[in-house]
Amino acid sequence: MTTLALEQVDGLPRFSQITPDQVKPAVTKAIEDCKQTIEAVVASGDYSYANVVSKIDEADDVLGKVWSPVSHMNSVVSSD
Known about the structure:
Elements (H helix, E strand, L loop, with lengths): L19 H25 L4 H30 L2
Helix pairs in contact: 1-2
């Protein structure tokens, strides 16, 4: 299976490797991962700060790292 440039969230975005057809699958996967994290936190019954906020923050960070390059590239091509 090919790793999409948007799924490689370590380091700087690989703008030159990002293609439009990668956006939907990468964002969809990141959203699904966030949903699974939330479901796991709720199911655990442990509502401590470390379990709730930290785990959801980590999942949200990945979603942000996937979406940020897309948003940036959209701003660049939409500017005059």
